[in-house]
Amino acid sequence: MTDNEPAPGHLGVERDGNVRALARGLQVLQVINRGGSVTMMQISRGAGIPYPTAVRIVDTLIAEGMVEREPARKRYRPTALVRTLASGYREADALVAAARPIIVELTRRFLWPVSVSTRVGGMMMVQDSTHQLTTLTFHNYAPGFTLPLSECASGKAWLAFADPEDLATVKAGLAQGDGPAERMARLMLADGGLLQRIRAKGYATQARNAYTATPGKTSSLAAPLFQGGRVAGAMSLIFFSSAMPMREAEARYAEALVDAAARLSAALD
To answer: What is the pLDDT of residue 183?
Structure first.
């Protein structure tokens, strides 16, 4: 039996096998889209699937025009066709339009990149950022880059200020996965102490981000964004972990970040 074949005699074999194949294909496309230019080994590890399976899926995505191999090296990148997957999604348009001048202002003031993100399932997805406006960054995080809720400052800020209905939705989704990020999120929600401290401060922190394009090299602060009385996302300021300890970053930037997030929330309302 191969790694993608369901057990013999399982009811609904064709349906379940197709669903699994689709899930893996989406995981691979997310890894490639998030990385921008990645090797096959990075795809395999990022999607959590065997190397031969990653090869087959990438070959399929190349055939469909969603992915292409770089001419001079064995790396893979998304094509412009991936934009068609989001052509019907408009919910974040108002957020991006209102946020742009505010996050640009913050980056010009402090030089560090600033991003705004929203929750998509168990992840926080970047909707806009100013990484391209500063040299103080390791990677240009384009819209669509995702981070696990429990492993980024923006996700912690969202969780701390989410209402019970939204939290119930997140918990139901987390129950379906058993990866390290899902387990950490379940522990965080079960404890509640960390979320209470975030609410008291008005912002969240994440030292040495592990799920970025450069793991461990950046840290971040994030303040929640609200629209219509409900948490709509988060605004994050990202800095080099080696540049300063978190306490110093909080003293320098937290007040301005919270103020900027409040101004954006007012604009959204």
So the answer is: 81
